[in-house]
Amino acid sequence: MTKRVGIFVSGGGSNMRALVEDMTGAHPARAAVVVSNNADSGGIAWAQSQGIATEVIDHRPFGADRPAFEAAITAALAPYALDLICLAGFMRVLTEGFVAPWAGRMLNIHPSLLPKYKGLHTHARALEAGDKEHGCTVHLVTPALDDGPILGQARVPVLAGDTPDDLAARVLKQEHRLYPAVLRRFASGEASPLLL
Ligand code: GRF
User: Fold this and answer.
1) Which positions ≥6 away from 63 have C-beta within 8 Å?
2) What is the C-alpha separation between 157 and 46, in angstroms, rounded?
3) Which tens digit of pLDDT belongs to each residue from 30-53?
4) Predicted local distance difference test score (pLDDT) of residue 118
5) For residue 172, which atom of ligand 1 is closest to its CA?
6) In the CATH hierarchy, which fold is given to the domain comprising 3-110+143-153+178-189?
7) For the chain, what are the domain ranges?
8) What's the 91 CA to ligand 1 centre distance in angstroms?
9) Residues in the ligand 1 pocket, defined by CB under 6 Å
10) Which of the 8 DSSP states describes residue 130?
């Protein structure tokens, strides 16, 4: 049975595009819906241009009431009968209330070699630390931020004179290779870590 995937984006959605463009032919999964908290997200516009269903749930009217925001997401997702969720540049932290029912079925991509540099500004922090290597990680989402079991990692060199933007661009290229490869494996039941 082909797995139905919901992909969450906040911005441009380049990782979401990489996932969607890989889910063709004999791939064990298909994108059922693209979800965003940002109506102006480039990812939503692109998904609509591809004829993929989209749902926008703006977090701002909910203020600090995350459970209410998440209940609105859950209601919007109900018609799609999803098997998996992929967070792809989704910049809202989800509470345990939303994450727990999706335990083992929600993936995220993070632009660092976890467990190093959980949270934001990962490229600048790697440079500040003088790291010689950096990269990205796909992991299962748990209530603790950027902390779940690792499903895959890709490494890049840190080069002399690199700026955070240089590093971000080099890592993003690897993200677009790693996330589709991990999702393809995971959706076919293979959860052992993939190291690129
Ligand atoms: C990526 O580096 C992703 O790892 C991070 O946000 C960045 C933008 O991703 N969470 P995208 O282009 O919106 O997929």
Assistant:
1) none
2) 31
3) 999 999 999 999 999 999 999 999
4) 98
5) 2
6) Rossmann fold (3.40.50)
7) 3-110+143-153+178-189
8) 9
9) 9, 11-16, 88-89, 109-111, 172, 175
10) T
